[in-house]
């Protein structure tokens, strides 16, 4: 392998998102390699720049806009025939100025589940899948609410736009858990939401759930990703987070970030440690533990895809 191929090229990439959830893709100009392919705008990180600095500069040079708010998000390494690139993705939610194609490229606003331009650069395909995930991941709390009260609250949250639920009820009998799972999946699917079953792959398949959420113990024991549409994992350490990525999980839940009501004196990560662990993740990471909906912006600033809530979700 030549020195050129061994060198890793650092690239900053932007997911410009509008309030309606659409994001911007740009078509590479005819005079560039991979001409005609669609990608997230951005460019190489120059010497002495941070990835954020490069992002701001590139978006000004390419699109004519001034970045106001950009959240660190995912890091993906991809090997093309001509080079290996490390892409540092940022979600850009606020900018000033009108988009203008300074390099003559075409623009298109797209939805994650209905991308209508092609071909898309291979390195960007996993990013499109990650963009299907909402910012809030709600964990069931039947243990405290009771089944009927939980289902009433679930319907209310679904009506308010909840899109992703983890059914996690360790204290229910298998029969009662199955009954609850059937009802939860039916309600969620009627609202266009996804349900992941905690720790029980067989149950997830039986009730038609969208996937499984692996416990940290399962994560340590598995050697290949379960064959489901969506697979997530509970992580508490860097080692577990790395394993979730190697296994091919779609996203991870990292906890506990702050002291929790159920374990007030237990050790917790804190935002600094959470940020350090999430910084290089190639998959979306949800922050869990001691949080409320008000912490969403803080979580984004620290590199989280969003937050996971138990009591506060309902």
UniProtKB/TrEMBL annotation:
Belongs to the Nudix hydrolase family. The keyword Repressor does not apply. It comes from Gallionella capsiferriformans (strain ES-2). This is 8-oxo-dGTP diphosphatase. Its EC number is 3.6.1.55. GO terms for biological process: DNA repair; DNA replication; thiamine biosynthetic process. It is an enzyme of class 3 (hydrolase). SUPFAM superfamilies: Nudix, Thiamin phosphate synthase. It catalyses: 8-oxo-dGTP + H2O = 8-oxo-dGMP + diphosphate + H(+); 8-oxo-GTP + H2O = 8-oxo-GMP + diphosphate + H(+). Keywords: DNA damage, DNA repair, DNA replication, Hydrolase, Magnesium, Metal-binding, Mutator protein. GO terms for molecular function: 8-oxo-7,8-dihydrodeoxyguanosine triphosphate pyrophosphatase activity; 8-oxo-7,8-dihydroguanosine triphosphate pyrophosphatase activity; 8-oxo-dGDP phosphatase activity; 8-oxo-GDP phosphatase activity; metal ion binding. PROSITE patterns: NUDIX, NUDIX_BOX. Its cofactor is Mg(2+). The keyword Zinc does not apply. Residues 6-135 form the Nudix hydrolase domain.
């Amino acid at each position: 392998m030549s020195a050129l191929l061994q060198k890793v090229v650092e690239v900053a990439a932007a997911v410009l998102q509008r309030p309606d959830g659409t994001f911007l893709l740009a078509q590479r100009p005819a005079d560039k390699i991979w001409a005609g392919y669609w990608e997230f705008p951005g460019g190489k990180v120059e010497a002495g720049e941070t990835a954020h600095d490069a992002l701001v500069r590139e978006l000004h040079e390419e699109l004519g806009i001034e970045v106001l708010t950009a959240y660190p998000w995912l890091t993906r390494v991809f090997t093309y025939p001509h080079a290996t690139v490390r892409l540092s993705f940022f979600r850009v939610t606020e900018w000033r100025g009108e988009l203008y194609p300074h390099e003559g490229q075409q623009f298109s606003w797209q939805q994650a589940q209905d991308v209508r331009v092609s071909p898309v650069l291979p390195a960007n395909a996993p990013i499109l899948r990650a963009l299907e995930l909402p910012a809030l991941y709600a964990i069931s709390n039947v243990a405290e609410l009771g089944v009927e009260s939980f289902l009433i609250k679930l319907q209310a949250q679904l009506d308010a736009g909840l899109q992703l639920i983890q059914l996690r009820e360790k204290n229910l009998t298998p029969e009662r858990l199955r009954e609850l799972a059937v009802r939860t999946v039916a309600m969620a699917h009627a609202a266009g939401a996804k349900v992941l079953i905690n720790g029980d792959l067989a149950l997830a398949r039986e009730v038609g759930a969208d996937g499984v959420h692996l416990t940290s113990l399962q994560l340590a024991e598995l050697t290949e990703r379960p064959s489901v549409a969506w697979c997530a994992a509970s992580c508490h350490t860097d080692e577990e987070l790395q394993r979730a990525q190697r296994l091919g999980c779609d996203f991870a839940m990292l906890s506990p970030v702050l002291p929790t009501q159920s374990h007030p004196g237990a050790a917790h990560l804190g935002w600094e440690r959470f940020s350090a662990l999430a910084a290089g993740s190639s998959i979306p990471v949800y922050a869990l533990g001691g949080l409320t909906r008000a912490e969403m912006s803080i979580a984004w600033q620290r590199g989280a895809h969003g937050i996971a809530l138990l009591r506060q979700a309902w």
